[in-house]
Design brief:
This protein is 20% helix and 32% strand. With 144 residues, the protein is an alpha+beta fold.
Length: 144
């Protein structure tokens, strides 16, 4: 879809992550210096009733941003994001990030698009949802 005109209701190609990996989750816990045991300790995750290790929230957000930035000229075109974490993502789950054009407008001579974004887990529940606002070339928006 990159380069095509964006109109309200248009869906960007989804970003699917097949089976969140334990090694990725543990690595992120180390990088972020996150001491919360369910991110790296399977025994503690089990004690809390989790089906597996709890995946990192920032990684889940990155999947949403990747769904949008794949269609932009540069990741720096993202102006803002506003999301809510509604459910958890665990190791072994497949997640799907979607982005749909909610609004297009011209602001200060730039094309601006607001995307509704959602990260669904493999049960179809929205784990993270919200909006991402980005700039695009004027010829990419339907400015009627």
């Amino acid at each position: 879809m990159t380069g095509e005109t964006l109109s309200e209701g248009d869906a960007l190609p989804p970003r699917t992550i097949d089976e969140v990996q334990e090694s990725d989750t543990k690595l992120l816990a180390a990088i972020l210096q996150d001491p919360y045991p369910p991110h790296f300790d399977p025994k503690r995750a089990d004690e809390l009733g989790y089906p597996d290790l709890l995946h990192q929230g920032p990684a889940n957000l990155s999947y949403l941003l990747q769904a949008v930035t794949a269609d932009l000229e540069s990741p720096t075109d993202v102006r803002s994001f506003d999301v809510r974490y509604d459910d958890m993502v665990f190791v072994g789950q497949t997640v799907r990030a979607t982005a749909t054009v909610e609004e297009t407008r011209v602001e200060n001579g730039e094309g601006v698009v607001t995307f509704a974004v959602a990260l669904e887990n493999d049960e179809g529940d929205v784990a993270v949802g919200g909006t991402v606002e980005a700039t695009v070339p004027l010829d990419r928006i339907d400015a009627d």
